Amino acid sequence: MDFVGYAERAAMLANTPFSSVDEVRAHLADREWLVPQVTERDVRALQRFQRRLRTVFENGDAGHPDGAIGALNTLLAAHRITPLIVPTDAAGTDSGRTASGWRLHVADRAATVADLLVAESLMGLSILVCDLGPNRLGVCASSTCSTAFVDTSPNHSRRYCSDRCSSRSNVAAYRARKKAGTRSVVRRRPTEGDA
Q1: Which of 11, 44, 121, 189 shows the greatest Cβ crowding within 10 Å of its Cβ?
Q2: Is-contact 137 148, C-beta < 8 A?
Q3: How would you class 68 by CB atoms within 10 Å of its CB: exposed for 0-12, middle for 13-18, buried for 19 or more?
Protein backbone atom coordinates (compact mmCIF):
# COMPACT_ATOMS: atom_id res chain seq x y z
CA MET A 1 0.00 0.00 0.00
CA ASP A 2 1.45 3.35 -1.05
CA PHE A 3 0.59 5.68 1.82
CA VAL A 4 2.72 8.53 0.44
CA GLY A 5 0.79 8.20 -2.81
CA TYR A 6 -2.45 8.39 -0.84
CA ALA A 7 -1.18 11.50 0.96
CA GLU A 8 -0.34 13.08 -2.40
CA ARG A 9 -3.83 12.17 -3.64
CA ALA A 10 -5.17 13.94 -0.54
CA ALA A 11 -3.35 17.09 -1.64
CA MET A 12 -4.81 16.74 -5.13
CA LEU A 13 -8.24 16.29 -3.58
CA ALA A 14 -7.78 19.45 -1.50
CA ASN A 15 -6.82 21.39 -4.65
CA THR A 16 -9.47 20.20 -7.09
CA PRO A 17 -12.80 22.06 -7.02
CA PHE A 18 -15.79 19.78 -7.52
CA SER A 19 -19.12 21.25 -8.56
CA SER A 20 -20.43 18.38 -10.66
CA VAL A 21 -20.28 14.64 -11.21
CA ASP A 22 -18.29 15.28 -14.40
CA GLU A 23 -15.57 17.12 -12.47
CA VAL A 24 -15.22 14.22 -10.02
CA ARG A 25 -15.10 11.81 -12.96
CA ALA A 26 -12.35 13.89 -14.60
CA HIS A 27 -10.42 13.79 -11.32
CA LEU A 28 -10.66 9.99 -11.41
CA ALA A 29 -9.64 9.61 -15.07
CA ASP A 30 -6.68 7.39 -14.10
CA ARG A 31 -9.02 5.09 -12.13
CA GLU A 32 -11.51 4.04 -14.79
CA TRP A 33 -13.34 1.50 -12.61
CA LEU A 34 -14.51 4.28 -10.25
CA VAL A 35 -15.76 6.71 -12.91
CA PRO A 36 -19.19 5.12 -13.54
CA GLN A 37 -19.86 4.86 -9.79
CA VAL A 38 -19.73 8.63 -9.10
CA THR A 39 -23.02 10.17 -7.91
CA GLU A 40 -24.26 13.61 -6.85
CA ARG A 41 -24.04 12.39 -3.26
CA ASP A 42 -20.29 11.83 -3.77
CA VAL A 43 -19.91 15.39 -5.07
CA ARG A 44 -21.57 16.89 -1.98
CA ALA A 45 -19.64 14.63 0.41
CA LEU A 46 -16.32 15.52 -1.24
CA GLN A 47 -17.09 19.25 -1.14
CA ARG A 48 -17.69 19.07 2.62
CA PHE A 49 -14.56 16.98 3.13
CA GLN A 50 -12.36 19.31 1.05
CA ARG A 51 -13.15 22.34 3.18
CA ARG A 52 -12.04 20.52 6.32
CA LEU A 53 -9.08 18.79 4.66
CA ARG A 54 -7.57 22.11 3.63
CA THR A 55 -7.15 23.04 7.32
CA VAL A 56 -4.78 20.10 7.82
CA PHE A 57 -2.44 21.40 5.11
CA GLU A 58 -2.68 25.02 6.23
CA ASN A 59 -1.77 24.15 9.82
CA GLY A 60 1.11 21.94 8.70
CA ASP A 61 2.42 24.70 6.46
CA ALA A 62 2.11 27.36 9.17
CA GLY A 63 4.20 25.29 11.59
CA HIS A 64 1.25 24.43 13.84
CA PRO A 65 1.66 20.67 14.33
CA ASP A 66 -1.02 20.49 17.04
CA GLY A 67 -3.48 22.23 14.70
CA ALA A 68 -2.68 19.86 11.83
CA ILE A 69 -2.97 16.78 14.05
CA GLY A 70 -6.15 18.11 15.69
CA ALA A 71 -7.78 18.75 12.31
CA LEU A 72 -6.71 15.31 11.08
CA ASN A 73 -8.03 13.61 14.22
CA THR A 74 -11.34 15.44 13.84
CA LEU A 75 -11.61 14.13 10.28
CA LEU A 76 -10.67 10.60 11.38
CA ALA A 77 -13.43 10.70 14.02
CA ALA A 78 -16.00 11.99 11.52
CA HIS A 79 -15.09 9.51 8.76
CA ARG A 80 -14.79 5.99 10.08
CA ILE A 81 -12.45 3.94 7.90
CA THR A 82 -13.36 0.30 7.24
CA PRO A 83 -10.31 -1.41 5.73
CA LEU A 84 -10.55 -4.79 4.07
CA ILE A 85 -7.90 -7.42 3.25
CA VAL A 86 -8.39 -8.99 -0.17
CA PRO A 87 -6.39 -11.38 -2.34
CA THR A 88 -4.24 -9.54 -4.86
CA ASP A 89 -6.05 -11.33 -7.70
CA ALA A 90 -9.31 -9.73 -6.54
CA ALA A 91 -7.77 -6.34 -7.27
CA GLY A 92 -7.65 -7.31 -10.93
CA THR A 93 -4.05 -6.32 -11.59
CA ASP A 94 -0.68 -7.99 -11.32
CA SER A 95 1.03 -4.70 -10.43
CA GLY A 96 -0.42 -4.90 -6.93
CA ARG A 97 0.98 -8.36 -6.16
CA THR A 98 2.55 -8.84 -2.77
CA ALA A 99 4.71 -11.68 -1.45
CA SER A 100 1.83 -12.94 0.71
CA GLY A 101 -0.77 -12.72 -2.05
CA TRP A 102 -2.88 -10.30 0.04
CA ARG A 103 -3.40 -6.57 -0.08
CA LEU A 104 -5.07 -4.05 2.19
CA HIS A 105 -7.83 -1.85 0.80
CA VAL A 106 -8.67 1.24 2.84
CA ALA A 107 -12.42 0.85 2.33
CA ASP A 108 -14.76 -2.12 2.18
CA ARG A 109 -16.80 -3.10 -0.85
CA ALA A 110 -19.85 -1.14 0.31
CA ALA A 111 -17.94 2.18 0.24
CA THR A 112 -19.07 4.94 -2.07
CA VAL A 113 -16.56 6.76 -4.26
CA ALA A 114 -16.43 9.60 -1.73
CA ASP A 115 -15.91 7.12 1.14
CA LEU A 116 -12.99 5.56 -0.73
CA LEU A 117 -11.32 8.88 -1.57
CA VAL A 118 -11.78 10.13 1.99
CA ALA A 119 -10.37 6.89 3.46
CA GLU A 120 -7.34 6.99 1.15
CA SER A 121 -6.69 10.62 2.05
CA LEU A 122 -6.98 10.11 5.79
CA MET A 123 -4.91 6.91 5.89
CA GLY A 124 -2.20 8.43 3.69
CA LEU A 125 -2.00 11.64 5.69
CA SER A 126 -2.10 9.81 9.03
CA ILE A 127 0.79 7.50 8.13
CA LEU A 128 2.79 10.35 6.58
CA VAL A 129 2.31 12.60 9.62
CA CYS A 130 3.26 9.79 12.02
CA ASP A 131 6.36 8.84 9.98
CA LEU A 132 7.61 12.26 8.80
CA GLY A 133 5.71 14.87 10.83
CA PRO A 134 2.95 17.35 10.01
CA ASN A 135 5.49 19.90 8.74
CA ARG A 136 5.63 17.83 5.54
CA LEU A 137 2.24 19.24 4.57
CA GLY A 138 2.47 22.55 2.79
CA VAL A 139 0.73 25.29 0.86
CA CYS A 140 2.52 26.93 -2.07
CA ALA A 141 4.59 29.96 -1.03
CA SER A 142 3.82 31.80 -4.27
CA SER A 143 1.72 34.91 -3.73
CA THR A 144 -0.47 33.91 -6.69
CA CYS A 145 -1.06 30.27 -5.71
CA SER A 146 -2.60 28.40 -2.78
CA THR A 147 -2.07 24.81 -3.89
CA ALA A 148 -1.63 22.23 -1.10
CA PHE A 149 1.21 19.72 -1.46
CA VAL A 150 3.11 16.96 0.33
CA ASP A 151 6.83 17.60 0.82
CA THR A 152 8.69 14.34 0.33
CA SER A 153 12.06 16.00 -0.29
CA PRO A 154 14.91 14.47 1.74
CA ASN A 155 15.81 17.74 3.45
CA HIS A 156 12.28 19.13 3.84
CA SER A 157 13.04 22.12 1.65
CA ARG A 158 9.99 22.32 -0.60
CA ARG A 159 8.18 25.67 -0.50
CA TYR A 160 6.30 25.64 -3.79
CA CYS A 161 3.73 23.28 -5.27
CA SER A 162 5.64 22.97 -8.55
CA ASP A 163 8.78 24.01 -10.39
CA ARG A 164 6.63 26.43 -12.38
CA CYS A 165 5.50 28.34 -9.26
CA SER A 166 9.05 28.31 -7.90
CA SER A 167 10.44 29.75 -11.15
CA ARG A 168 7.75 32.43 -11.39
CA SER A 169 8.37 33.51 -7.79
CA ASN A 170 12.13 33.58 -8.27
CA VAL A 171 11.83 35.64 -11.45
CA ALA A 172 9.42 38.06 -9.75
CA ALA A 173 11.78 38.43 -6.77
CA TYR A 174 14.75 39.00 -9.09
CA ARG A 175 12.87 41.68 -11.03
CA ALA A 176 11.77 43.37 -7.80
CA ARG A 177 15.37 43.43 -6.50
CA LYS A 178 16.64 44.75 -9.81
CA LYS A 179 13.97 47.46 -9.88
CA ALA A 180 14.71 48.44 -6.27
CA GLY A 181 18.44 48.53 -7.06
CA THR A 182 17.85 50.84 -10.00
CA ARG A 183 15.97 53.27 -7.79
CA SER A 184 18.63 53.26 -5.09
CA VAL A 185 21.41 54.25 -7.46
CA VAL A 186 21.63 58.04 -7.19
CA ARG A 187 23.20 59.64 -10.17
CA ARG A 188 25.74 62.23 -9.21
CA ARG A 189 25.60 65.46 -11.17
CA PRO A 190 28.88 66.60 -12.61
CA THR A 191 30.44 69.54 -10.77
CA GLU A 192 32.81 72.20 -12.04
CA GLY A 193 35.83 70.28 -10.78
CA ASP A 194 34.99 67.27 -12.95
CA ALA A 195 36.77 67.29 -16.23
Answers
A1: 121
A2: yes
A3: buried
